[in-house]
Specification:
Shape: globular
Number of strands: 11
Number of helices: 0
Largest sheet: 7 strands, mixed
Structural class: mainly beta
Amino acid sequence: QVQLVESGGGLVQPGGSLRLSCAASGSIFRIYAMGWYRQAPGKQRELVATITSGGRTNYADSLKGRFTISRDNAKNTVYLQMNSLKPEDTAVYYCNADVWATIRGDYWGQGTQVTVSS
């Protein structure tokens, strides 16, 4: 059993900042990578950012410079710092983890709504 618990979503004004957190728990032997994806209404789920256990990051090109992903390996937690938020950032944000538990596989959080509006 692996659970991803997300927090930090909500309503924020354009130009503001928000930090999302996702903590993985359960019978985890190792987490190879964690990341964030998002899905806006009428659109496919898309990559936001990922980070490996070694700290290597990957971002969607359109988000470079505004979003920063980080992790605390000791806490099995990944963060997404979102700055200069725009209305088009409005979406459901999903946490993802590549985990070796009973078997190795991908796990997803339930998603958290981020709404950017004045």
